[in-house]
């Protein structure tokens, strides 16, 4: 019942928007296909730190906000319009053309691929197993039988429990203590999130002898376009360029996220 | 929110498990630190300089650094410095606490021993007693009586210092209480740990009161 109601509402909204749109933009658009005539890119999103959120001045910012602006500029859109959407009915609204894409740290799932054309992954979030360098070089396929440190109540601890693998979980106070446990040999491995692992295992830290051996759980973020939209291919090409020229690396560092490379 | 009887039983059981570890730290620390403190106090009163001054230096270091830091040094130190696996957390806690408390106890013993007038040693000598006989038969019981109040203070502090063991992941009562914040979003179990500490310190207070009364006949 609720779904039906939201569908009806979404359709009403689409007609309303279509009515508005008709008066202004359609007149200019079809004449020629130069880059100036593309209009604005309408991005559907929710407030979700660090992807899209308001800074202290009330300005919309975040990884996806800046990424979308960079993409729009490269693709020759006039600008980007961000609209807040209902996450539950996002694919219906996307199909109805209420906005051009869902771009909001969206996890790529089977459901998403079924309902929309999903881009290549750009950011990933994973719980990774960190061990010492030698052990990582030998290769690790399971945490079975190991003493594994993870922060009490964290996603990492949940990933260990949910995996159902028989290991000795040692709960610690913070993620860095979990790393310390591995660095000092108190634990064989620890499970922390990938962004933390990547920043703490960098050259010059006291944990640089450790390495990520495997991923325990992993999710990747992508942008969803209307099913069959040619924008997907264009997005994938431009994203590859933005990855290559370091634009996305700078953004990932700014918002402490891990890129999919 | 309301707390059901089942919640109370669950939290009570978990906190009791944690407090069991707290009591183990407490008992083992006292068992080893009380005699070790006496040995250290003899060292710090020794007339031989190469014994006296290193021990004084050691007491200064132990009393001059936080117990929490000492825990980290004993637990992680060997692996960081020498790359060996080192101790697991329970023995590391016991060793750190024993050394730390032995140093505090030694100063209390020293105060007690030095408060016994020199004349009593001289009297012992006149009566033909050996030095050790004089100490164990005449001086020691008076020392015990003098040091009960400062000792009881230190021992009650020990009960609460055991909570520092959680810095190296020993599952004591505070850790047990804190776990409910992440697992259930409950804050009250952490504060409920105070009940365990209060009850136990209450028992200790009564016990020391009783001991002081028993030692009254020396006056």
| Largest interchain contact | A-B, 12 and 17 residues
Number of structural domains of chain A: 2
Structural class of chain B: mainly alpha
Q: What quaternary form is this?
A: heterodimer
Note the overall shape of chain B.
Answer: flat
The appropriate CATH architecture of the largest domain in chain A is 3-Layer(aba) Sandwich
Helix content bin of chain A: 25-40%
Whole-Å distance between the termini of chain B?
Answer: 57 Å
Number of helices of chain A: 10
Q: Major sheet of chain B, described briefly?
A: none
The strand count of chain A comes to 12
The residue fraction in helices of chain B comes out at: over 70%
- Discrete helix count of chain B: 8
* Overall pLDDT metric of chain A: 87
Provide a compact summary of the structure.
With 261 residues, chain A is of the alpha/beta class.
Provide a descriptive summary of the structure in words.
The complex is a heterodimer of chains A (261) and B (219). Chain A is an alpha/beta fold and 261 residues long. Chain A is 39% helix and 26% strand. Mean pLDDT of chain A is 87; it is low at 21-35. Chain A has two domains: 2-21 and 35-123 and 220-259, D-Maltodextrin-Binding Protein, domain 2, CATH 3.40.190.10; 126-218, Periplasmic binding protein-like II (D-Maltodextrin-Binding Protein, domain 2, 3-Layer(aba) Sandwich), CATH 3.40.190.10. With 219 residues, chain B is mostly helical. Chain B has a single domain (5-218), classed as MetI-like (MetI-like fold, Orthogonal Bundle). Chain B is built from eight helices and no strands. The radius of gyration of chain B is 21 Å and the shape is flat. The termini of chain B are far apart. At the A-B interface, strand 9 and helix 7 of A face helix 3 and helix 7 of B.
């Amino acid at each position: 019942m609720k779904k039906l109601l939201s569908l009806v509402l979404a359709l009403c909204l689409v007609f309303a928007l279509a009515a508005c749109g008709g008066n202004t933009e359609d007149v200019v658009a079809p004449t020629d296909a130069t880059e100036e005539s593309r209009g604005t890119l309408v991005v559907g999103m929710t407030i979700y730190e660090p992807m899209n959120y308001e800074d202290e001045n009330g300005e919309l910012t975040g990884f996806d906000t800046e990424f979308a602006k960079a993409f729009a500029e490269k693709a020759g859109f006039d600008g980007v319009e961000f609209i807040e959407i209902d996450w539950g009915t996002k694919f219906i609204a996307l199909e109805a053309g209420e906005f051009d894409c869902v771009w909001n740290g969206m996890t790529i799932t089977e459901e998403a691929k079924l309902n929309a054309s999903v881009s290549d992954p750009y950011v990933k979030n994973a719980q990774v197993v960190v061990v010492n360098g030698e052990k990582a070089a030998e290769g690790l396929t399971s945490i079975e039988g190991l003493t594994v440190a993870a922060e009490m109540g964290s996603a990492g601890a949940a990933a260990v429990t949910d995996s159902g693998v028989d290991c000795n979980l040692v709960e610690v106070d913070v993620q860095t203590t979990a790393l310390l446990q591995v660095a000092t040999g108190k634990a064989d491995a620890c499970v922390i999130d990938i962004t933390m692992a990547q920043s703490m295992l960098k050259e010059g830290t006291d944990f640089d002898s450790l390495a990520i051996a495997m991923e325990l759980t992993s999710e990747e973020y992508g942008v969803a376009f209307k099913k069959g939209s040619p924008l997907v291919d264009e997005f994938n090409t431009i994203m590859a360029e933005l990855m290559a020229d370091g634009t996305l690396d700078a953004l990932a560092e700014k918002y402490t996220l891990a890129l999919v490379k | 929110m309301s707390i059901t009887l089942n919640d109370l039983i669950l939290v009570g059981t978990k906190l009791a498990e944690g407090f069991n570890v707290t009591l183990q730290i407490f008992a083992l620390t006292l068992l080893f630190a009380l005699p070790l403190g006496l040995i250290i106090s003899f060292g710090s009163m020794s007339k031989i300089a190469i014994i006296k001054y290193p021990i004084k230096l050691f007491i200064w270091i132990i009393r001059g650094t936080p117990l929490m830091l000492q825990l980290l040094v004993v637990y992680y130190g060997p692996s960081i410095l020498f790359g060996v696996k080192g101790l697991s957390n329970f023995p590391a806690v016991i060793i750190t606490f024993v050394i730390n408390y032995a140093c505090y106890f030694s100063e209390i013993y020293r105060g007690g021993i030095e408060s016994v007038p020199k004349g009593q040693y001289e009297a012992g000598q006149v009566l033909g007693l050996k030095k050790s006989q004089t100490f164990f038969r005449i001086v020691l019981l008076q020392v015990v009586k003098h040091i009960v109040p400062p000792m009881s203070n230190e021992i009650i502090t020990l009960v609460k210092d055991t909570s520092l063991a959680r810095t190296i992941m020993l599952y004591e009562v505070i850790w047990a209480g804190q776990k409910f914040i992440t697992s259930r979003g409950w804050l009250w179990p952490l504060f409920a740990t105070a009940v365990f500490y209060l009850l136990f310190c209450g028992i200790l207070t009564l016990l020391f009161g009783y001991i002081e009364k028993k030692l009254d006949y020396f006056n």
